[in-house]
Amino acid sequence: MAVNVFIWVWLLWQINPTGEPIFLHYNILFGVDYIGEWWRVLFLPIFGFLILLINFLLGWVMFNRDKLLSYLLNAGALLCQLFLLVAACLLVFLNV
User: Fold this and answer.
1) Alpha helices, DSSP H only, in 1-96?
2) How high is the mean pLDDT in each 10-residue block of the chain (96 residues)?
């Protein structure tokens, strides 16, 4: 959860609301291939929160049946958050 909160805070602190389009995706083969409004960078932490919520709920339901599966769901959610943190860092460095 702390990683997701850090992504929210860091993106809102680094990406300033502006009327100009910003870079949203970079591909090593083609360069920047997706440009859009500044608020679209917030899709990253939103999807991260949804992953956390779904994995937490599934892990909570499955905890009494299979504790290992519950732990794996929570570890998977943490791994997804770390990948989203890397993606957020790349977005910030691409636009700043």
Assistant:
1) 2-14, 43-62, 67-95
2) 94 92 91 93 96 95 92 95 96 91
